[in-house]
Amino acid sequence: MKKLLALVFVLFPLLVKAEDTRVASYYLNNPEKYDGQKITLNCSYVKRDTETSLGGAVAVFRAYTASKNNNTFQTSEINVRVPIDVAEKFVHKYGSDMKYDYNYNYSTRPMTGIFKKDGSSYYLEYTPST
After folding, report:
1. What is the DSSP secondary-structure string of 21-65?
2. Which domains, ranges and CATH numbers included, belong to the chain?
3. pTM score > 0.70 for this model?
4. How many CB atoms neighbour CB 35 within 10 A?
5. φ/ψ (deg, to 5) at 114
């Protein structure tokens, strides 16, 4: 019985899914720890931020991330700065609407970039894959 109980204590943490580290809220809740580091998010879709202008070389988007953990659906978002010359490909790659089926299984794509600070807010500097 003691061996079984010990086995349960060892395996239980492996069976319980930890906090999802590929959603924007994970990094935004611990920003100092990840400032300047390369991160990867599971992106559901993106929307162009028409209210933010950084000049002609960069387009700003809102990336929406999602995860389903223990039957709980969590979404969060982060600003993403994208070189203007790849902005159209960026939208094509990540889509502009969330896609999911009748079981609420949704699709995501990995998005990689550098997590950075600008004033009092944080954003992702998109790193196009080659």
Report:
1. TTSHHHHHTSHHHHTT-EEEEEEEEEEE-TT----TTEEEEEEEE
2. 18-126 (2.40.50)
3. yes
4. 13
5. -100, 125
